[in-house]
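seq/struct pair 1
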Amino acid sequence: MLPKHPLVRLGLLPLAWFAFLFWLENFAIWGNRASSQSPAGDTTAHLMSLNSESSKPGHAPYGLHVFLAPAWLPLPQRFGELVFASYCQGEAAIAWQAADRLVIRCDAREIRTPPTSRRGIAVRLSSSPRQSPVNHWQPEPNAQETPAQNTP
């Protein structure tokens, strides 16, 4: 419900404008492609990209950015710590190997911010694509092949 006095209504206009700019800068420009909470549950890794041009385009405009932030913290692109920025070919993913190890899977073409360890978490880049387990059989290292015997 709006106040009846016109000066109070005009006073609400800057507040509405500020709210719109805050939304534009923090939600409309940045897109969250993936989030993954650490096994300990205290840190979240966010894989983000810019959706459109910005006055602060980041380290890799239109590329991927990985931020680490406490799990409770909103707006990781604003308050989190940048640990990786690059242009990746194809899909990218983030995965925790342990509570203190994060792996970024990305076929990196141009790295703007190399993987950096922050908050006690080692960040590693894995640029090799994951192989599908389907039709990808390899013998056990200790297995010995025995030739088939022909029996009459």
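seq/struct pair 2
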Amino acid sequence: MTCSAAYFTAVAFIAAIVGQHCVRKLIAWLGRASLIIFVLASMNLISTLILGIAISHIFLSSAHCKVTGNSRRRSRHFQHSSQDGAASVHGVRKPLQGVAS
């Protein structure tokens, strides 16, 4: 896991340096610094579109689970007990029956 994080960090660092060098050359060639604003605006637009698509996908899959009754997919941390119908969290012990707390 740490190897992939180090690899991602190295690739991001190199990409940032190369990108900065290319943008400086492009600004010097065009003579306009407004290129940075257009790049930032386009990145904002792309990230907004991706976020909207992801949210709609989550909403539609959640609605599909409610229609089909498939509730096992909602959370792997909660498990319904067949004895009393109460939900319990994995790894957390239930209190003893009949013992006052």
